[in-house]
Design a protein that fits this description.
Helix content: 10-25%
Radius of gyration: 20 Å
Oligomer: single chain
CATH class of the domain at 9-214: Alpha Beta
Distance between the termini: 62 Å
Order of helices and strands: HEHEEEHEHEEEHEHEEEE
């Protein structure tokens, strides 16, 4: 690359065919804070807010193992309405909870703290977050902004731009919460298909980075099953026994009808050679990719 050429990590990842499977960070609780002005590189931590309020919210988020994301509506930023905040939780048994509020003063954000203890109602539609944090990584703006605008034209009440979600090289990145589903490698056209399918509870392997309730090898196992046997609902496959062995993992995946009831999946980790992974990365880094080497149905017993 010459001095005049600019490096874009998402372009490089697509050229290398970097795999998406197993790249969704673990998480079951999200704090969303609407902030319509520019986002600092480190998101909420860098905002010019009352330091005491900010410390309380960050401490509560850490104790709840919640991720704080800044949000704003795509397009023109109207400053006339109150800012919103939300706590979203993917609870036990797949219960999806949301609690929303408004804030006018910095101190109003302390409402988030009790909301983490009682995260609200389960009758709300999912929230579609499109990473557009350009100050954190250029590709998130270049690819995320047009994707967010397109989706917002179809689902204006559900779509928000958000701050850094991880995996910049997979921009445009979309996270559906509190479902806990990461998608990547998208553009305005493919994002429409992905979200249409998601809203119909038909999750496909294409563009799927993983479910945030699973570990990376478990994510890779489920994605491989979806790729081989076709799309399925968010909760149609569950993870059973996961055994770590000297080379990788043996993972049992259980399906609900009409899907196969039980599958055994072998997953091996592979570390890539060092390469530049983000637009602003100061040095080359390696990444772990999760290779599924086999998917088997259990052998029938002798008595069958």
């Amino acid at each position: 690359m010459t001095d005049t050429e600019r490096f874009f990590c998402a372009d490089a990842a697509r050229t290398r065919h970097d795999p998406l499977a197993g790249t969704a960070p673990y998480g079951t609780v999200w704090i969303l804070i609407e902030y319509r002005q520019g986002w600092p590189v480190n998101g909420f931590a860098g905002l010019d807010l009352d330091s005491h309020t900010k410390a309380l919210v960050m401490e509560a988020a850490q104790q709840a193992q919640a991720r704080i994301l800044l949000i704003r509506r795509p397009g023109r930023r109207d400053s006339g309405d109150d800012n919103r905040w939300a706590v979203l939780c993917h609870g036990k048994g797949g219960t999806l909870l949301q609690r929303w509020g408004i804030w006018r003063r910095d101190a109003d954000l302390t409402q988030i703290i009790p909301a983490l203890e009682a995260p609200g109602t389960s009758d709300l539609r999912p929230v579609i977050l499109v990473c557009a944090h350009g100050l954190h990584d250029t590709c998130c703006a270049v690819r995320g902004l047009p994707t967010g605008r397109m989706l917002s034209s179809l689902w204006p009440d559900l779509v928000w731009e958000c701050s850094h979600v991880g995996g910049d090289r997979f921009a445009a990145n979309i996270v559906v919460v509190p479902d806990g589903v990461y998608y990547g490698g998208l553009d305005a056209r493919t994002a429409i298909t992905v979200i249409e399918e998601h809203m119909a509870d038909r999750i496909r392997a294409d563009h799927l980075r993983g479910y945030t309730t699973l570990s990376p090898p478990q994510q890779a196992a489920v994605i491989a099953v979806l790729r081989q046997f076709g799309p399925a609902g968010r909760n149609d496959y569950t993870i059973g026994e996961t055994v770590r062995h000297d080379r990788g993992w043996h993972i049992k995946v259980t399906g609900r009808p009409p899907h196969l009831s039980e599958l055994s999946v072998e997953v091996l980790p592979r570390r890539t050679s060092p390469r530049q992974l983000t637009c602003r990365g100061p040095a080359d880094s390696s990444a772990v990719r999760y290779e599924v080497t086999s998917i088997r149905t259990p052998s029938p017993s002798i008595d069958e």
